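pinned: reference chain
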Amino acid sequence: MKKLVYTPFSIVFGMLGARVGKKAFNAIWGRVSDEPKPSAKEPEISLGRVAASAALEGATLAAATAVARQLSVRAFHHVFGVWPVKAKRKTADDAA
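pinned: its structure tokens
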């Protein structure tokens, strides 16, 4: 039942995370280069520039997605008082 109720939280926060990640990448890339993000299909763009752009974009999107995922779990816990997913790792508090 928790999973069914948690799914809308996850979807909304995931969409927000993706949007924030794209905006963050565009802001960072704007400081790195005056040119738009290079496309891998353009033959005159260097391989290093395309790789750097893709790595930066992947890192910002991954970070934004991870933060959004954590915020969705915390928001669900705040609203309903239970964690929507089981912890995968044991914490120091669980071991005591």
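why pinned: Residues 37 and 53 are 7 Å apart (CA to CA). The chain has three helices and no strands.
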